[in-house]
Write a structure and sequence with these properties.
Elements lengths: L1 H7 L4 H13 L2 E5 L1 E2 L2 E2 L2 H12 L5 E4 L4 H11 L6 E4 L2 E4 L1 H10 L2 H6 L1
Parallel strand pairs: 1-4
Antiparallel strand pairs: 1-5, 2-3, 5-6
Helix pairs in contact: 3-5
Length: 113
Amino acid sequence: MQFGNQMEAELSEELRKEIDGILAKDKVVVFMKGNKAMPQCGFSDAVVKVLNFHGAEFADYDVLSRPELRSGMKVYSEWATFPQLYINKEFIGGCDIVMDMHEKGELEPLLKA
C-alpha cells in the first residue's frame, strides 16, 4: 500500500516500544488532538464525552504536542485520523466507530469488562 510505505519510516523501533508500553499500562487509551480536559477538535471532544458518559477511566495522549507520535500512530494502527481509541491493547477505531458502537450499546461491555 502506497500510504503505508510512505509512513513506515516514521515509526522507529523505539517509538513502537513506547506505544506498546502505553497500551500495556492502561486499559483504555485515547490518542487524540488535545487532551481530555481540553480537546482540540470536535471528534476528540465527542470521544471524550462518550467515555465520560460511561464513567470510563482513560489515559489520553496529545498527538498535536508530539508530531512523531502523531505520525507513528498512523502507522501503528494503520488508521490515518484521530482520535484513536484502544481498549485492552486493541484498536477500536476513530470517532465514527466509537459513536456507532456507543449508539448500538456495544461500547459499554468493552469498557466494563
